UniProtKB/TrEMBL annotation:
CDD domains: MoaC_PE (cd01420). Signal peptide: none annotated. Keywords: Lyase, Molybdenum cofactor biosynthesis. The keyword Lyase applies. Pathway: Cofactor biosynthesis; molybdopterin biosynthesis. It catalyses: (8S)-3',8-cyclo-7,8-dihydroguanosine 5'-triphosphate = cyclic pyranopterin phosphate + diphosphate. The active site is at residue 130. This is Cyclic pyranopterin monophosphate synthase.
Length: 160
């Protein structure tokens, strides 16, 4: 890990929003993922469309997109960004024992979209939990992580 100074602190050590006005606008992309682990019966219920609250994956997809657009309202000091694209893929994976969520966010701007992608994946996972908790309170949201980031001064990041 490189030694980088935290940039959300002013000269007095107080939290501040970083000034990105001098940074060039570049195409930026981030991909994040989350997993929701559950009982096989719960996964089968989601796959069959038989959940009492309706289309779990469809609602979670919409919730993730909406959350990405509201990231600056949720994460302190996060810049509001004009997102040009937000996609969420939710897949039932019996080998995983749950739902794999992949969120992709794009923008052209002076700062990255990592937080938007992570927020989208997290809120989609929370929505899956919320819609299925009546039948499986033991579900676990795991491995919320950044998988890819590109654009900007720091270059490309690919998770292992």
């Amino acid at each position: 890990m490189s030694e980088q100074k935290l940039t959300h602190l002013d000269a007095q050590g107080r939290a501040q929003m970083v000034d990105v006005s001098e940074k060039p606008a570049t195409a930026r992309r981030a991909v994040a993922e989350a997993r929701v682990l559950m009982q096989p019966e719960t996964l089968a219920l989601i796959e069959s469309g038989g959940a009492a609250k309706g289309d779990v994956l469809g609602v979670a997809r919409l919730a993730g997109i909406m959350a990405a657009k509201r990231t600056a309202d949720l994460i302190p000091l996060c810049h509001p960004l004009p997102l040009s694209k937000v996609t969420l893929d939710l897949a039932c994976d019996p080998e995983l024992g749950g739902v794999l969520i992949t969120a992709e966010c794009r923008t052209t701007g002076p700062t990255g979209v990592e937080m938007e992608a992570l927020t989208a994946a997290s809120v989609a996972a929370l929505t899956v939990y919320d819609m299925c908790k009546a039948v499986d309170r033991g579900m676990r949201i795991t491995e919320v992580r950044l998988r890819h980031k590109s654009g900007g001064k720091s270059g490309t990041f690919e998770a292992e």
